[in-house]
């Protein structure tokens, strides 16, 4: 859990830095005002309680943390409009750039991804590493989005659809606009702990 949170934290710091802002102010702003980061920490807590605490046999402690998680999950869902399914598997270095209308189902998401407002991922979807999902993008049930792809705002991936690596897709339903698309400017400077370089 802590390794994942550290990677999330580092990614937010790298993407939200402000000119002439001290390190202390950056960290203060991140901790108190980045609602996506707070929601991600809540999700990491729940995943940790369900898996790692169970494997060590700390059953009473596990249930205590799960109760805390459920309360915090309900709070961030209500206050921030971000709902991450408790059984979603999300790689380290997640960046949620805006809050509101975000629903991440029981999916698998690789490291170093970016999610924006009104993005929706159905259950049983698979998202690779370093995928940039623009606002109002939708990934429907059973779809697969491979590594280093970019979903333009409003892109809709149909059920069981496949988006190949390094492509830019747009539209509803989504169609390929550009192949061999380099999304590093959108994703941000690659971090070793957020999926590495291409």
UniProtKB/TrEMBL annotation:
Secretion signal span: none
Keywords: Transferase
Residue ranges crossing the lipid bilayer per the database entry: none
Keyword Metal-binding: no
Listed GO MF terms: transferase activity
Family of this protein: Belongs to the transferase hexapeptide repeat family.
Record-given protein name: Serine O-acetyltransferase
């Amino acid at each position: 859990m802590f390794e994942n949170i550290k990677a999330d934290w580092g990614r937010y710091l790298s993407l939200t830095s402000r000119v002439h802002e001290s390190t202390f102010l950056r960290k203060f702003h991140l901790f108190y005002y980045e609602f996506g980061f707070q929601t991600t920490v809540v999700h990491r807590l729940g995943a940790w309680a369900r898996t790692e605490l169970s494997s060590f046999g700390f059953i009473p402690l596990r249930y205590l943390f799960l109760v805390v998680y459920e309360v915090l999950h309900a709070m961030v869902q209500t206050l921030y409009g971000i709902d991450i399914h408790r059984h979603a598997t999300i790689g380290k270095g997640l960046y949620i750039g805006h809050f509101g209308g975000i629903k991440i189902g029981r999916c698998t998401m690789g490291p170093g991804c970016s999610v924006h407002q009104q993005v929706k991922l159905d259950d049983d979807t698979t998202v690779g590493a370093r995928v940039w999902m623009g606002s109002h993008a939708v990934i429907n049930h059973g779809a697969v989005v491979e590594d280093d792809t970019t979903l333009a705002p409003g892109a809709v991936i149909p059920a069981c659809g496949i988006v190949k690596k390094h492509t830019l897709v747009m539209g509803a339903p989504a169609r390929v606009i550009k192949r061999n698309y380099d999304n590093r400017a959108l994703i941000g400077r690659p971090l070793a702990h957020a999926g590495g370089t291409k």
